[in-house]
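Cont'd.
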Amino acid sequence: MEHMIQFFKNDRFAERVGIELLEVSEGSARARMEVKDHHLNSVNIVHGAAIFSLADLVFSVASNSHGTVAVAVNVNITFMKAASKGTLFAEATEVSRNPKLASYTIRVTDEAGELIALFQGMVYRKKDKIFP
Amino acid sequence: MEHMIQFFKNDRFAERVGIELLEVSEGSARARMEVKDHHLNSVNIVHGAAIFSLADLVFSVASNSHGTVAVAVNVNITFMKAASKGTLFAEATEVSRNPKLASYTIRVTDEAGELIALFQGMVYRKKDKIFP
Amino acid sequence: MEHMIQFFKNDRFAERVGIELLEVSEGSARARMEVKDHHLNSVNIVHGAAIFSLADLVFSVASNSHGTVAVAVNVNITFMKAASKGTLFAEATEVSRNPKLASYTIRVTDEAGELIALFQGMVYRKKDKIFP
Amino acid sequence: MEHMIQFFKNDRFAERVGIELLEVSEGSARARMEVKDHHLNSVNIVHGAAIFSLADLVFSVASNSHGTVAVAVNVNITFMKAASKGTLFAEATEVSRNPKLASYTIRVTDEAGELIALFQGMVYRKKDKIFP
């Protein structure tokens, strides 16, 4: 999946937020985000949108890993536990896939393995190839 | 609501992403994000997580506007339309509120007023005051 | 939209639950459910699944009203307020639609007009005509 | 958990729909629904609301299994695959729980074990005991 890793080097938002892709295989992906000051909100905990961004990256990588363009159409995220430091991890698993739609579950955990957030995402799968 | 505006000056993630709070009143808020290169994903459209971040800011401001701490527990977001440039706007409206839980609808629109995403968020309301 | 009303006469689940379709036009629909004993759960309030069923009917009617088959792929429902008697109403509004996907917001209210639940649903639109 | 089984005998909506509770333990539950004519919609597939009802029952049983009243506040359901006959099963797993909020994942499968729907639900936990 070297080409997927190259592909996601162009994701400027993930770079801006500071997310590092660790692994990718067909239908799954794993990433991490080391908590920095710029991830915090006004009450000094990691911003929900930073957690979403981490989960969204592996969602995007996993759903595009089959080689055709997948576009996010719906996401549901539940926040279980606050985090304020250390490293957060996200792991995407493919739950279902047909030629048009696919669904993924992403678990965001902290260093102790505790669940920080649960993310359920659906993509619409286009016919366009990622690498024409 | 000057104190809310001050409060959100401490939101370092919103600042990192480049979101500007425009208005806040009890239960509602409005913000904008001028699309920059760092908001784009690998296929040059605005990243879903950037759109989420914009919506999440007004969700947070609106739900904390009553003066007690509100913590996001669940969000559902539907992406309607891709955006790649210009300025995006988000507006939060309070849908329901009791002493423990409250719900908000956030509409993200582009300069032409077209709907880019619809965000439905729920908070758990703590007893802690924002300004003790 | 007489044909839509006929079409939904075949919805045996809606009939079983006791839902009455009141109105349908392109992209929207309205229905009601008079609360009966069989809608109640173990603590004598209207079952979340009964409220979902009412909302789901207008979602289905509104999304199929354009004449091509629309299949529900995702729903998010937030329950705001308990109900235990009287009549509940559901109204569906089309939020967005392209040839493949469409989204609807359904508000469930009681007789006093208070919001009982907010339902956000997405359909996948097939090419099949409802009436060949 | 005999008392939970007794408790859910009072769920008139589950009875009306035709759902049978199979198992309950702390934080989890399993049920089944034999597909009958009254579960079908206008195009002869199992109604989304019937599938929701099945999932919602185990969600309710699992979240109330700790002995204090749990009230559904948000549900996200994704429909993966149509079903038209046979028996459907739902299984609830507790994902997280604190004194105020808890989250559950419910998988709805058919006889072949294929995933029909994935349901993510959140409850607000009251202080009231189920059996005073």
